[in-house]
Each structure stands twice: as structure tokens, then as C-alpha cells.
Amino acid sequence: MTDTTDNIKISIVVPVKNGMDTLERFIAGIQLQSLLKDIEVVIIDSGSNDGSIGYLEAFDFVKVISIDPKTFNHGATRNFAITQCQGEFVFMTVQDAWTTDEHLLKRMLAHFDDIEVMGVCGQQIVPKRDDTNPHEWFRPFSSPKPKSIQFKTQDQFLSLSSEEQFKLCGWDDVIAMYRKTALLEIPFKPVAFGEDMLWAKAALIKGYKIVYDYRNRVNHYHHAYPGFVYKRTFIVLYFIYKSFGFVRDLSVSKSEFLKILYRNFKYKVNPKWIIFNWKAKDARHSAFLDFKHALNLSEEDLEHLYESVCSNVPQGKSYKTK
């Protein structure tokens, strides 16, 4: 990487491990950005052996930093990455997300003209592709408007119900931009899941202003096989319970199963998606029931089940790889 640190305004942080299947389209989206001359990409690679490092090092706006895979942690690794960033602003994303919007970063950056704004979050969507689930394709029905959230005192935020607090903290490090100073002041918690939502909670308690602007979107997709859905659902339920203090209802009603049939005929897609989505919904419902059952027994039973089922955060898989 050439020495252009004087020009860097935005540092893009991307954890990578064996990302060659998706890195080309990720890099293409970066090269498309209208602010390309003001960007550096900070790659934190944890043991790639598929050519990812060699591919990335060919780009002069990319800096690759290798870490021991055993030390990777969603929160702690991102904190380390921040110390390697030269930009005043830090954009968090992942190796398998990509954009075709040339003004994505420019639009997000504009919110920071307000000196009280410390973070801006966008939206990940499922693109219309042959290798994605058509029931999950992004089908917008309205134009979103940016929403700012700020509490002048921590009591204002803490007086909200646990569920209300959670709804305000749907932050997402697949597409989020921060002031670097805010990340240094409130680092991510060293957790295996949910570091982004916990940051939003801490920021709101501190009185920071954060912005949700869903005009900003990246494509991102994990093929939701039943095993992935079960583990992911259980992890989400556990995280929300431990971090926000309530049990989110992720049960699946009979009407949701019927909607699978309706949507499949409405979208005129292959009948195989009926079975696929039915199994995915059933896996989500089973995870919810198992979580509730363990919690009703005791906190200790919940911890044991969590360790046995979800000691490792499951990774999304491609359509062709089960």
C-alpha cells in the first residue's frame, strides 16, 4: 500500500478469512465509490490460505494485517483494527457484503456534518440472484427517511422498557460508519456476537446521537439451511436475553407457514423453495421452544444448552455448500 495517509478520510474495516469467493465483488464496490481517493481498506486476515491475501495486496488502497485465527473475536478484533486506521471515520463491513451504489459512503459521511452524530447505520439486503432465496429478495415498497436517535440524559434511555431499548439498538456492523473518536471512547465489547448492538446501547446511554439511514444498503446473504437457522436463532435469543433482559418472541405461527405457500405462488418460483423455507421456519420455531424450555427450568440449564448448541457462532454457507 502506498503512503497516502494524508488523504485518508474513511477507513474501511473488513475481517477476512478465505474470502476469494466474494472479495472480487467487494473490491469492485469499493472501487466504484465516488470518495475512492479518500479511502483505505484495512483487512484483518485470520489465517486465509485460499489466495485472499495475495489478491488484496495488489490494491494500493488496501492494507492487510494478519492475526492468529485463534485470537479472532468479533468485538476485540475490530477494536484492534481501529488502532490501525488512519481515517477520521471508520466504516465496518464484512467480506461477503458488496455494493453497486457509488455514493454509499458519501451519503453516510454527510450525516457527520452534525458534530453530535457519532454513528450511522445502513441496511443489508438480499439481492435478486439465482443463488439467493427468492422469499428473501429485497422488495421495497416505500422510500426510507433517515432517523436520528439521541437521549440527553442516560435516565431517559434507561427508563424505557427492555424491549424498547432493544428496538433502538438494531445496529449492524455489516454496514455502519463511526467517528473514530467515538470508537476509541466506547470500544466494542469482546464478544462473539452482538458487539454492534451493544455499542449502540452504550452510545445512547452516553448521550451520543446515532442515525439509521436505510437509503444506504449493501448486498449480503447467507443461505439459511435449517441447522444454521436453529443455531443463529438460539444465539440471538440468548444475546437479547442477556444484554437487554427480555425474551424476544421468535416463535412461528401457523399463518407464517401458510404464507410460505402464498408467497411461492405469488412470486412464481420453483416449488423447492416451499420445502426449504418451511424447514427454515420450523428450525427457528424449534430453537425458540428449546430456549424457552431451558430458561423455564433454570439459568443453569440455559447456560448448559447454550454451550452445547452455540459454543461457536455458525457461519453462513453458500447455496451449493451444506
Descriptive overview:
The protein is α/β, with parallel strands linked by helices. It folds into 2 domains: 5-219, Spore Coat Polysaccharide Biosynthesis Protein SpsA, Chain A (Alpha-Beta Complex); 226-310. Helices cover 42% and strands 16% of the residues. It is built from 12 helices and 8 strands. The chain has helices at residues 20-31, 52-56, 74-83, 104-110, 154-158, 162-167, 180-185, 195-206, 226-244, 254-267, 272-297, 299-310, and strands at 10-16, 39-45, 62-66, 89-92, 117-125, 147-149, 176-179, 209-219. An 8-stranded mixed sheet has the order 3-2-1-4-7-5-8-6. Strand 1, helix 1 (20-31) and strand 2 (39-45) form a beta-alpha-beta unit. Helix 10 runs antiparallel to helix 11. It starts with 9 loop residues before the first strand and ends in a 12-residue tail after the last helix. The model has no long low-confidence stretch (mean pLDDT 94).
Order of helices and strands: EHEHEHEHEEHHEHHEHHHH
The level 1 CATH classification of the largest domain is: Alpha Beta
* Helix-residue proportion: 40-55%
Distance between the termini: 37 Å
Radius of gyration: 20 Å
Write the CATH fold name of the largest domain.
Answer: Spore Coat Polysaccharide Biosynthesis Protein SpsA, Chain A
Estimate the mean pLDDT confidence: 94
Structural class: alpha/beta
Number of helices in the DSSP assignment:
12
Sketch the major β-sheet. Answer: 8 strands, mixed
Task: Name the shape in a single word.
Answer: globular
Domain Glycosyltransferase 2-like: 11-136
Protein name: Glycosyltransferase family 2 protein
Organism: Formosa undariae
InterPro entries: Glyco_trans_2-like (IPR001173), Nucleotide-diphossugar_trans (IPR029044)
